[in-house]
Write a structure and sequence with these properties.
single chain, about 300 residues, mainly alpha, Rhomboid-like fold, 2 domains, two-stranded antiparallel sheet, 13 helices, globular
């Protein structure tokens, strides 16, 4: 069991940001299903536990559990719900990354989910159709549709092959998806369809403002960077002062042979090319965070670090 957990941790650390989002969704889904099964077998209210990760429509209820504006977009309970959401996220996430960075993908997933959740709450509290109604929202659909719409706005004529339809521009996929959500508001799951429209609006706004030099995901990525860096400082001891003074050697100070000169680049065992690569990668980490590195950059940084330590 320990080996299996270590394997999952290793897979997660080596995965792309897109894959990590999918892994988290799958992990939360498994936990929620296990809670539901336990509730069924042992006769307790599993729904009461699951509600702690669902987004409530009531603002007073939301104030008691504000974390749900984030947790709801990772929570699924039905198999088909998570299956379709994750397939959409994987397909359009790959397309999205052809035009934007992984940090934009992560940021838009969260900001799109937050936008969909806020529109859902506003609708339930301002529109007469939902008066005296309370609802709970869960699922990644709003976040995923934000990525779908952003990709379609950025590259509207990009064609993909669909079964029974052949090649079709992704703009039509986005338009049909939003149209179906709009005409389905009066049917079941009205709150869910409204949240999808909220996510779509965020995706549209992301591309329009980014073309003007405004990144609406920057604030969220800054929060993530701060949290990650703070965690590393606390748990890795990065804030402690480290002395690089060589240990004192007892005995004779006389040397039988002169010490070899250090190699160029100033570090024992590392070439000037490795030094240049590490400097460029470390600058990128300082500006954009470790998560912005590509798999190749992570591998080169690891190899250069190994040679520096040898």
């Amino acid at each position: 069991m320990a080996d299996f957990i270590d394997m999952l941790r290793s897979r997660f650390r080596m995965a792309s940001l897109l894959a990590r989002i999918i892994y988290v969704n799958i992990g939360v889904f498994v936990v929620l299903r296990l809670v539901g099964i336990a509730g069924f077998l042992f006769g307790f209210d599993a729904g009461g536990i699951i509600s702690y990760v669902e987004l409530p429509s009531s603002p007073w209820w939301f104030l008691r559990q504000p974390w749900t504006i984030v947790t709801y977009m990772f929570a699924h309970y039905d198999v088909l719900h998570i299956l379709f959401n994750m397939l959409w996220l994987w397909w359009f996430g790959q397309l999205f990354l052809q035009f934007f960075s992984p940090r934009h993908l992560t940021g838009l997933y969260f900001v799109g989910g937050i936008g969909g959740g806020l529109l859902y709450m506003l609708a339930y509290n301002l529109l007469p159709a939902f008066a005296w109604h309370n609802g709970l929202l869960l699922g990644a659909s709003a976040a995923v549709i934000a990525i779908v719409v952003a990709t379609a706005v950025q590259a509207p004529n990009y064609k993909v092959g669909l079964l029974f339809f052949g090649e079709i521009s992704i703009k039509w996929i986005a338009i049909v998806t939003i149209f179906i959500d709009f005409i389905s508001i009066s049917a079941d799951n009205a709150g869910g369809h409204i949240s999808h429209i909220g996510g779509a609006l965020v995706g549209l706004l992301f591309v329009v403002l980014l073309r003007r030099g405004i990144d609406i995901t920057a604030w969220f990525n800054a929060i993530i960077d701060f949290a990650v860096n703070s965690y590393r400082r606390i748990f890795s001891g990065a804030g402690k002062r480290v002395s690089f003074k060589p240990p004192h050697r007892r005995g004779s100070r006389r040397r039988s042979t002169p010490p070899p000169p250090p190699p160029q680049g100033g570090n024992r065992g590392i070439s000037p090319e490795d030094e240049r690569v590490m400097d460029e990668i470390l600058k990128k980490i300082k500006v954009s965070g470790y998560g912005a590195l590509t798999d190749e950059e992570k591998s080169r940084l690891f190899q250069a670090s190994r040679r520096r330590q040898n």
